Every structure is written in C-alpha cells, then in structure tokens.
Amino acid sequence: xxxxxxxxxxxxxxxxxxxxxxxxxxxxxxxxxxxxxxxxxxxxxxxxxxxxxxxxxxxxxxxxxxxxxxxxxxxxxxxxxxxxxxxxxxxxxxxxxxxxxxxxxxxxxxxxxxxxxxxxxxxxxxxxxxxxxxxxxxxxxxxxxxxxxxxxxxxxxxxxxxxxxxxxxxxxxxxxxxxxxxxxxxxxxxxxxxxxxxxxxxxxxxxxxxxxxxxxxxxxxxxxxxxxxxxxxxxxxxxxxxxxxxxxxxxxxx
Length: 254
Known about the structure:
The protein is of the alpha/beta class. It has helices spanning 23-34, 55-64, 79-93, 116-143, 166-185, 204-209, 223-234; strands at residues 14-18, 38-43, 69-73, 98-101, 147-152, 190-196, 244-247. Strand 1 (14-18), helix 1 (23-34) and strand 2 (38-43) form a beta-alpha-beta unit.
C-alpha cells in the first residue's frame, strides 16, 4: 500500500467488512487497507459464481499492495457463521475497531408481485444480517476503547413517491436500528452511522437484480465515492460524527 513510513489515518486499526467480495464492499475494503487498516474480507463468495469476485481475490489485491487482509467466509443470515467469522478475525488480528456492514441483496419488484421468499431474503440479509454482524462485533470494539460501526443503506429509503419494495423496506429498518444504536453505544465511545450512495453505484449486484432499470449517466456514482466516505466514517468515534445517515457525495471529501 502507498504511504511508505507516513502515518495513515487507520494505522493499527482492524476492520471487519461484511459483503466484501465485489462492488461497493470490495472498493471499501481496498480503501480501508490503503488507509492503514487490517481488513477481514468477509462474504459467502469463496469461489466464482454467477457474479464475479471472491473473498480471496479481494484479500489478494490488498496483500499484493502491501496491506494486511484475511479472507473469511461469512453468511450474514447464519448466527454461527457470523460468530465464527468474527472470532477468526480477532484470532488473526487481535481485535476489531471498525465494522462495515455492506452485505446486501436487491429486489426492486412491486409488492404485489414479490414472492415471499424474496421479501424474506431481503429482510434476512439486509436487516437481520446487519443485526447479527453488529451484535457480534460490539464487544470487541468496546474492548478496544471505542471505534466505528457503519451500515451501508440506500437513498431509496426516502423515495416514498417511487412506491415500495422489499429492498427499501429492509434498508429503512437498518437505518432505524443504527440510529437507535448510536445512543446506546455513545457511552462506549463507539460511533454508529449509516452510509448510502448519493446516486446509483452500478455494481454487479445492481446489474443482476435491478430489474433492467436504465440509469442515466448523470445518476451514476463511482464506487470510489463510497470508499472515501467509508474511510472518513471509519475514523470516527462517539466524540465525532455518530447517529447520522450520510450520503457519500454530501460529505464533500477530496
């Protein structure tokens, strides 16, 4: 990683990143490592599937650049899998300072044509998965004297004039979870924030599950905007920015 002997903002920190094998998660993982953090690259993708990207390929990109990374399998819908992934991270790096809960599934179909299994999957991954990852890391972040929890959400939560779908509902629930959690963890010096793209990031997941929606070029946001914003929020504790819903490009970062 670049920087030589210069102090970087996340030197000495450990980040657990759920949903890190591609898209926004991979971009954030690389940026956190570039900023000095050791990164647990956590996701289900151990081998190439329908979508490109694996935990090992992202971790290898970090280590090839001189950073520290651990590929760790994690199914955020499984309590046991999450706890095992967090335990493996602590065993490897000695603790956790930062959580980025990015694992997500997309379903943009109208409510009346949404199969129950798709509705439930969005809630299981996008809401319960954040709950499980967050619950598992809190004791470790507390033990380090504070840190930062970040949940990746979406601007669609506020777009009620565009109708309803399982994806937006599940992300809205996560935002409420994190806004309340910020108050609960303020005394532990833990920042708790949500982060969403300001525009649409055309990730592999979006292209596979976006329902063929055409996005005008001016509404497309590069993944790097989310990566920069995540690095900024990762530096916070309860004395800084906490209890907020941030939009990536609104932070006006360099």
